Amino acid sequence: MPKIEKSIAVFTSGGDSPGMNAAVRAVVRSAIYFGLRVYGIRRGYEGMIDGDIYEMRSQDVSNIIQRGGTILKTARSERFRTPEGMSQAFENLKKHNINGIVALGGDGTFKGCLEFNKVHDIQCIGVPCTIDNDLFGTDFTIGYDTAINTALDAIDKIRDTADSHNRLFFVEVMGRDAGFIAMRTGIGGGAEAILVPETKTNMEQLIAKLEKGWKRNKASSIVIVAEGDEAGGAFEVARKVREHFNYYDTRVSIIGHMQRGGNPTCMDRVLASRLGVAAVEALLEGKSNLMVGMIHKDLVFTPFEKAIKHNLDINMNLLRLAEILSAN
Ligand code: F6P
Protein backbone atom coordinates (compact mmCIF):
# COMPACT_ATOMS: atom_id res chain seq x y z
CA MET A 1 0.00 0.00 0.00
CA PRO A 2 1.52 3.42 -0.94
CA LYS A 3 2.15 5.98 1.80
CA ILE A 4 -1.05 7.77 2.65
CA GLU A 5 -0.82 11.53 2.54
CA LYS A 6 -4.20 12.46 1.22
CA SER A 7 -7.42 14.02 2.21
CA ILE A 8 -10.36 12.79 0.25
CA ALA A 9 -13.98 13.87 -0.11
CA VAL A 10 -17.21 12.07 -0.83
CA PHE A 11 -20.39 13.49 -2.34
CA THR A 12 -23.71 12.34 -3.75
CA SER A 13 -25.08 13.83 -6.94
CA GLY A 14 -28.01 13.53 -9.36
CA GLY A 15 -31.13 11.55 -8.47
CA ASP A 16 -30.78 9.85 -5.10
CA SER A 17 -30.95 6.10 -4.74
CA PRO A 18 -31.47 3.79 -1.74
CA GLY A 19 -28.05 2.61 -0.58
CA MET A 20 -26.28 5.92 -1.11
CA ASN A 21 -26.00 6.30 2.65
CA ALA A 22 -24.49 2.84 2.99
CA ALA A 23 -21.91 3.84 0.35
CA VAL A 24 -21.12 7.13 2.14
CA ARG A 25 -20.63 5.14 5.35
CA ALA A 26 -18.30 2.69 3.61
CA VAL A 27 -16.20 5.50 2.11
CA VAL A 28 -15.93 7.37 5.42
CA ARG A 29 -15.19 4.33 7.57
CA SER A 30 -12.65 2.84 5.16
CA ALA A 31 -10.90 6.18 4.63
CA ILE A 32 -10.49 6.54 8.40
CA TYR A 33 -9.36 2.91 8.62
CA PHE A 34 -6.59 3.67 6.10
CA GLY A 35 -5.52 6.80 7.98
CA LEU A 36 -7.03 9.37 5.62
CA ARG A 37 -8.81 12.58 6.47
CA VAL A 38 -12.25 12.44 4.90
CA TYR A 39 -14.66 15.23 4.05
CA GLY A 40 -18.30 15.23 3.06
CA ILE A 41 -19.55 17.66 0.43
CA ARG A 42 -23.22 18.59 0.71
CA ARG A 43 -25.50 18.90 -2.36
CA GLY A 44 -23.05 17.42 -4.85
CA TYR A 45 -21.29 19.77 -7.24
CA GLU A 46 -23.40 22.67 -5.98
CA GLY A 47 -21.93 22.28 -2.51
CA MET A 48 -18.44 21.90 -3.98
CA ILE A 49 -18.84 25.31 -5.63
CA ASP A 50 -20.32 26.87 -2.48
CA GLY A 51 -17.67 25.35 -0.21
CA ASP A 52 -20.24 23.33 1.73
CA ILE A 53 -17.57 20.88 2.86
CA TYR A 54 -17.08 19.40 6.33
CA GLU A 55 -14.79 16.85 7.90
CA MET A 56 -16.53 13.57 8.67
CA ARG A 57 -15.91 11.34 11.66
CA SER A 58 -16.84 7.74 12.08
CA GLN A 59 -19.86 8.62 14.23
CA ASP A 60 -21.22 10.91 11.51
CA VAL A 61 -22.12 7.80 9.56
CA SER A 62 -23.53 5.80 12.48
CA ASN A 63 -27.04 4.50 12.07
CA ILE A 64 -27.35 5.38 8.38
CA ILE A 65 -26.68 2.07 6.62
CA GLN A 66 -30.40 1.28 6.69
CA ARG A 67 -31.67 4.70 5.65
CA GLY A 68 -32.85 5.70 2.17
CA GLY A 69 -32.02 9.10 0.66
CA THR A 70 -28.65 10.68 1.29
CA ILE A 71 -27.43 12.43 4.43
CA LEU A 72 -25.15 14.50 2.16
CA LYS A 73 -28.15 15.73 0.14
CA THR A 74 -27.99 15.83 -3.61
CA ALA A 75 -28.51 18.22 -6.49
CA ARG A 76 -28.18 18.59 -10.23
CA SER A 77 -25.78 21.47 -10.92
CA GLU A 78 -25.88 23.76 -13.93
CA ARG A 79 -23.13 25.96 -12.51
CA PHE A 80 -20.66 23.08 -12.53
CA ARG A 81 -20.91 23.00 -16.32
CA THR A 82 -19.18 26.39 -16.49
CA PRO A 83 -15.37 26.92 -16.24
CA GLU A 84 -15.95 29.45 -13.43
CA GLY A 85 -18.01 26.94 -11.44
CA MET A 86 -15.38 24.26 -11.81
CA SER A 87 -12.53 26.60 -10.83
CA GLN A 88 -14.42 27.71 -7.74
CA ALA A 89 -15.06 24.06 -6.82
CA PHE A 90 -11.39 23.21 -7.29
CA GLU A 91 -10.31 26.16 -5.10
CA ASN A 92 -12.61 24.92 -2.33
CA LEU A 93 -11.16 21.41 -2.52
CA LYS A 94 -7.64 22.81 -2.38
CA LYS A 95 -8.45 24.77 0.79
CA HIS A 96 -8.88 21.41 2.52
CA ASN A 97 -5.97 19.74 0.68
CA ILE A 98 -8.42 17.35 -0.91
CA ASN A 99 -6.84 15.62 -3.86
CA GLY A 100 -9.12 12.64 -4.27
CA ILE A 101 -12.91 12.52 -4.58
CA VAL A 102 -15.44 9.71 -4.51
CA ALA A 103 -18.48 10.56 -6.60
CA LEU A 104 -21.69 8.68 -5.87
CA GLY A 105 -24.20 9.00 -8.70
CA GLY A 106 -25.06 8.13 -12.27
CA ASP A 107 -23.99 9.16 -15.74
CA GLY A 108 -24.43 12.93 -15.21
CA THR A 109 -22.24 12.74 -12.12
CA PHE A 110 -19.48 10.90 -13.93
CA LYS A 111 -19.65 13.26 -16.91
CA GLY A 112 -19.02 16.04 -14.38
CA CYS A 113 -15.93 14.21 -13.06
CA LEU A 114 -14.58 13.70 -16.56
CA GLU A 115 -14.90 17.38 -17.46
CA PHE A 116 -13.47 18.43 -14.09
CA ASN A 117 -10.44 16.26 -14.65
CA LYS A 118 -9.71 17.69 -18.07
CA VAL A 119 -8.92 21.07 -16.49
CA HIS A 120 -8.06 20.38 -12.87
CA ASP A 121 -5.73 17.89 -11.30
CA ILE A 122 -7.95 15.78 -9.07
CA GLN A 123 -8.21 12.03 -8.66
CA CYS A 124 -11.75 10.77 -9.00
CA ILE A 125 -13.44 7.40 -8.54
CA GLY A 126 -17.15 6.90 -9.24
CA VAL A 127 -19.56 4.60 -7.44
CA PRO A 128 -22.68 3.72 -9.48
CA CYS A 129 -25.75 4.90 -7.60
CA THR A 130 -28.98 5.09 -9.58
CA ILE A 131 -32.23 3.21 -9.45
CA ASP A 132 -32.19 2.98 -13.27
CA ASN A 133 -29.36 0.41 -13.51
CA ASP A 134 -28.28 2.06 -16.76
CA LEU A 135 -24.49 2.12 -16.40
CA PHE A 136 -22.08 -0.04 -18.29
CA GLY A 137 -19.46 -1.76 -16.12
CA THR A 138 -21.57 -3.21 -13.32
CA ASP A 139 -24.26 -5.87 -13.20
CA PHE A 140 -26.26 -3.78 -10.77
CA THR A 141 -26.18 -0.18 -9.64
CA ILE A 142 -26.78 0.73 -6.01
CA GLY A 143 -30.49 1.37 -5.46
CA TYR A 144 -31.81 -0.71 -8.32
CA ASP A 145 -32.64 -3.76 -6.21
CA THR A 146 -34.51 -1.68 -3.65
CA ALA A 147 -36.39 0.25 -6.35
CA ILE A 148 -37.56 -2.88 -8.15
CA ASN A 149 -38.75 -4.43 -4.91
CA THR A 150 -40.64 -1.26 -4.00
CA ALA A 151 -42.25 -1.19 -7.44
CA LEU A 152 -43.04 -4.89 -7.26
CA ASP A 153 -44.75 -4.49 -3.91
CA ALA A 154 -46.94 -1.77 -5.45
CA ILE A 155 -47.68 -3.92 -8.50
CA ASP A 156 -48.73 -6.85 -6.30
CA LYS A 157 -51.15 -4.59 -4.47
CA ILE A 158 -52.52 -3.24 -7.73
CA ARG A 159 -52.98 -6.82 -8.91
CA ASP A 160 -55.22 -7.54 -5.91
CA THR A 161 -57.63 -4.77 -6.72
CA ALA A 162 -57.35 -5.31 -10.49
CA ASP A 163 -58.37 -8.91 -9.96
CA SER A 164 -61.32 -8.04 -7.69
CA HIS A 165 -62.75 -5.65 -10.28
CA ASN A 166 -61.71 -7.46 -13.47
CA ARG A 167 -59.72 -4.42 -14.50
CA LEU A 168 -56.90 -3.62 -16.86
CA PHE A 169 -54.17 -1.52 -15.27
CA PHE A 170 -51.42 0.44 -16.94
CA VAL A 171 -48.68 0.86 -14.37
CA GLU A 172 -45.88 3.32 -14.99
CA VAL A 173 -42.51 2.70 -13.41
CA MET A 174 -39.45 4.97 -13.49
CA GLY A 175 -36.83 4.96 -16.22
CA ARG A 176 -36.61 7.98 -18.48
CA ASP A 177 -34.06 6.39 -20.78
CA ALA A 178 -33.90 2.82 -19.62
CA GLY A 179 -36.31 -0.07 -19.22
CA PHE A 180 -34.48 -2.14 -16.62
CA ILE A 181 -36.93 -1.38 -13.81
CA ALA A 182 -39.87 -2.10 -16.12
CA MET A 183 -38.40 -5.36 -17.35
CA ARG A 184 -37.67 -6.89 -13.94
CA THR A 185 -40.85 -5.71 -12.26
CA GLY A 186 -42.86 -6.83 -15.27
CA ILE A 187 -41.50 -10.34 -15.05
CA GLY A 188 -41.69 -10.42 -11.25
CA GLY A 189 -45.24 -9.05 -11.27
CA GLY A 190 -46.49 -11.39 -13.99
CA ALA A 191 -47.38 -8.54 -16.34
CA GLU A 192 -49.25 -9.15 -19.59
CA ALA A 193 -46.95 -6.76 -21.40
CA ILE A 194 -43.84 -4.69 -20.70
CA LEU A 195 -43.11 -1.52 -22.66
CA VAL A 196 -39.52 -0.24 -22.58
CA PRO A 197 -37.70 2.60 -24.33
CA GLU A 198 -35.09 0.24 -25.80
CA THR A 199 -37.56 -1.48 -28.14
CA LYS A 200 -40.21 0.01 -30.38
CA THR A 201 -43.69 -0.51 -28.96
CA ASN A 202 -46.09 -2.15 -31.37
CA MET A 203 -49.50 -0.84 -30.32
CA GLU A 204 -51.41 -3.18 -32.63
CA GLN A 205 -49.73 -6.20 -31.10
CA LEU A 206 -50.42 -4.92 -27.62
CA ILE A 207 -54.08 -4.33 -28.38
CA ALA A 208 -54.41 -7.77 -30.00
CA LYS A 209 -52.89 -9.40 -26.95
CA LEU A 210 -55.18 -7.61 -24.52
CA GLU A 211 -58.16 -8.45 -26.67
CA LYS A 212 -57.16 -12.10 -26.66
CA GLY A 213 -56.96 -12.02 -22.86
CA TRP A 214 -60.43 -10.49 -22.67
CA LYS A 215 -61.86 -13.24 -24.84
CA ARG A 216 -60.29 -15.83 -22.56
CA ASN A 217 -62.06 -14.19 -19.62
CA LYS A 218 -58.86 -13.05 -18.02
CA ALA A 219 -59.77 -11.60 -14.64
CA SER A 220 -57.13 -8.87 -14.58
CA SER A 221 -54.35 -7.56 -16.73
CA ILE A 222 -51.34 -5.46 -15.94
CA VAL A 223 -49.25 -3.61 -18.50
CA ILE A 224 -45.99 -2.17 -17.22
CA VAL A 225 -44.91 1.00 -18.99
CA ALA A 226 -41.45 2.49 -18.49
CA GLU A 227 -41.72 6.24 -18.02
CA GLY A 228 -39.54 6.85 -21.10
CA ASP A 229 -41.30 4.48 -23.51
CA GLU A 230 -41.61 6.15 -26.90
CA ALA A 231 -45.34 5.27 -27.12
CA GLY A 232 -45.85 7.69 -24.21
CA GLY A 233 -46.28 7.27 -20.47
CA ALA A 234 -48.95 5.04 -18.96
CA PHE A 235 -51.76 7.60 -19.46
CA GLU A 236 -50.96 7.98 -23.14
CA VAL A 237 -50.65 4.24 -23.75
CA ALA A 238 -53.96 3.65 -21.92
CA ARG A 239 -55.61 6.32 -24.08
CA LYS A 240 -54.35 4.72 -27.28
CA VAL A 241 -55.54 1.28 -26.19
CA ARG A 242 -58.97 2.58 -25.20
CA GLU A 243 -59.42 4.14 -28.63
CA HIS A 244 -59.40 0.67 -30.17
CA PHE A 245 -60.60 -1.55 -27.42
CA ASN A 246 -62.72 -0.52 -24.48
CA TYR A 247 -64.30 -3.68 -23.08
CA TYR A 248 -62.05 -3.59 -20.05
CA ASP A 249 -62.56 -1.16 -17.24
CA THR A 250 -59.09 0.43 -17.30
CA ARG A 251 -57.11 2.36 -14.73
CA VAL A 252 -53.70 4.00 -14.70
CA SER A 253 -51.27 4.02 -11.80
CA ILE A 254 -47.98 5.88 -11.69
CA ILE A 255 -45.72 4.58 -8.98
CA GLY A 256 -43.35 7.56 -9.22
CA HIS A 257 -40.79 8.76 -6.73
CA MET A 258 -41.61 6.27 -4.01
CA GLN A 259 -39.31 4.03 -6.08
CA ARG A 260 -36.43 6.27 -5.10
CA GLY A 261 -36.93 6.09 -1.35
CA GLY A 262 -37.14 3.54 1.41
CA ASN A 263 -34.73 1.36 3.33
CA PRO A 264 -32.20 -0.26 1.01
CA THR A 265 -32.40 -4.02 0.61
CA CYS A 266 -29.61 -6.19 1.96
CA MET A 267 -28.34 -6.59 -1.63
CA ASP A 268 -27.98 -2.83 -2.00
CA ARG A 269 -26.38 -2.36 1.41
CA VAL A 270 -23.75 -5.01 0.75
CA LEU A 271 -23.08 -3.76 -2.78
CA ALA A 272 -22.72 -0.19 -1.47
CA SER A 273 -20.35 -1.34 1.27
CA ARG A 274 -18.15 -3.25 -1.15
CA LEU A 275 -18.00 -0.53 -3.77
CA GLY A 276 -17.46 2.26 -1.22
CA VAL A 277 -14.42 0.52 0.27
CA ALA A 278 -13.10 -0.39 -3.20
CA ALA A 279 -13.36 3.27 -4.27
CA VAL A 280 -11.16 4.41 -1.38
CA GLU A 281 -8.64 1.64 -2.04
CA ALA A 282 -8.56 2.66 -5.70
CA LEU A 283 -7.73 6.26 -4.76
CA LEU A 284 -4.92 4.97 -2.55
CA GLU A 285 -3.57 2.99 -5.48
CA GLY A 286 -3.50 6.14 -7.60
CA LYS A 287 -6.42 5.16 -9.84
CA SER A 288 -8.59 7.86 -11.36
CA ASN A 289 -11.43 8.53 -13.80
CA LEU A 290 -12.86 5.09 -13.22
CA MET A 291 -16.16 3.74 -12.03
CA VAL A 292 -16.01 0.75 -9.73
CA GLY A 293 -18.62 -1.94 -10.28
CA MET A 294 -19.29 -5.63 -9.74
CA ILE A 295 -19.53 -8.05 -12.63
CA HIS A 296 -20.14 -11.72 -11.85
CA LYS A 297 -19.20 -11.11 -8.21
CA ASP A 298 -15.85 -9.51 -9.11
CA LEU A 299 -14.81 -5.90 -8.64
CA VAL A 300 -14.29 -4.26 -12.01
CA PHE A 301 -13.03 -0.77 -12.90
CA THR A 302 -14.43 0.87 -16.01
CA PRO A 303 -13.28 4.21 -17.50
CA PHE A 304 -15.96 6.88 -17.09
CA GLU A 305 -16.17 7.39 -20.87
CA LYS A 306 -17.18 3.78 -21.30
CA ALA A 307 -19.49 3.59 -18.27
CA ILE A 308 -21.60 6.49 -19.51
CA LYS A 309 -21.37 6.27 -23.27
CA HIS A 310 -21.44 2.59 -23.93
CA ASN A 311 -25.09 1.89 -24.48
CA LEU A 312 -26.37 -0.83 -22.24
CA ASP A 313 -28.56 -3.25 -24.09
CA ILE A 314 -31.69 -4.52 -22.49
CA ASN A 315 -31.50 -8.27 -21.98
CA MET A 316 -33.53 -9.59 -24.92
CA ASN A 317 -33.67 -13.03 -23.32
CA LEU A 318 -35.61 -11.56 -20.43
CA LEU A 319 -38.03 -9.80 -22.75
CA ARG A 320 -38.52 -13.06 -24.61
CA LEU A 321 -39.14 -14.83 -21.32
CA ALA A 322 -41.81 -12.27 -20.46
CA GLU A 323 -43.40 -12.84 -23.88
CA ILE A 324 -43.50 -16.62 -23.43
CA LEU A 325 -44.93 -16.40 -19.92
CA SER A 326 -47.71 -14.01 -20.92
CA ALA A 327 -48.61 -15.53 -24.30
CA ASN A 328 -51.51 -17.67 -23.08
O1 F6P B 1 -32.33 8.72 -12.79
C1 F6P B 1 -33.25 8.23 -11.90
C2 F6P B 1 -34.62 8.77 -12.16
O2 F6P B 1 -35.41 8.33 -11.11
C3 F6P B 1 -35.25 8.40 -13.50
O3 F6P B 1 -35.75 7.09 -13.56
C4 F6P B 1 -36.31 9.44 -13.60
O4 F6P B 1 -36.69 9.63 -14.91
C5 F6P B 1 -35.64 10.65 -13.05
O5 F6P B 1 -34.65 10.18 -12.16
C6 F6P B 1 -36.56 11.60 -12.35
O6 F6P B 1 -35.84 12.72 -11.93
P1 F6P B 1 -36.40 13.85 -10.97
O7 F6P B 1 -36.37 13.30 -9.58
O8 F6P B 1 -35.47 14.98 -11.14
O9 F6P B 1 -37.79 14.13 -11.39
Structure, described:
With 328 residues, the chain is of the alpha/beta class. It has two domains: 7-143 and 264-309, 3-Layer(aba) Sandwich (Rossmann fold); 144-260, Rossmann fold. The protein has helices spanning 20-33, 44-50, 83-95, 107-119, 144-165, 180-188, 203-215, 234-244, 266-284, 304-309, 316-326; strands at 7-12, 37-41, 53-55, 98-105, 123-128, 167-173, 193-195, 221-226, 249-254, 290-295, 298-303. The strands form two sheets. A seven-stranded mixed sheet has the order 3-2-1-4-5-10-11, sandwiched between helices. It has a four-stranded parallel sheet with strand order 7-8-6-9, sandwiched between helices. A hairpin with a 2-residue loop joins strand 10 (290-295) and strand 11 (298-303). It is elongated and about 70 Å long. The model has no long low-confidence stretch (mean pLDDT 94). Bound molecules: 6-O-phosphono-beta-D-fructofuranose.
Give a quick set of tags describing it.
single chain; 328 residues; alpha/beta; Rossmann fold; 2 domains; seven-stranded mixed beta sheet; four-stranded parallel beta sheet; 11 strands; binds 6-O-phosphono-beta-D-fructofuranose
Brief synopsis:
Helix content is 42%, strand content 19%. With 328 residues, the chain is α/β, with parallel strands linked by helices. It has 2 domains: 183 residues, 3-Layer(aba) Sandwich (Rossmann fold); 117 residues, Rossmann fold (3-Layer(aba) Sandwich).
Query: Count the strands?
Result: 11
According to CATH, the fold-level topology of the largest domain is Rossmann fold
Q: Give the rounded overall mean pLDDT.
A: 94
Q: Estimate percent helicity.
A: 40-55%
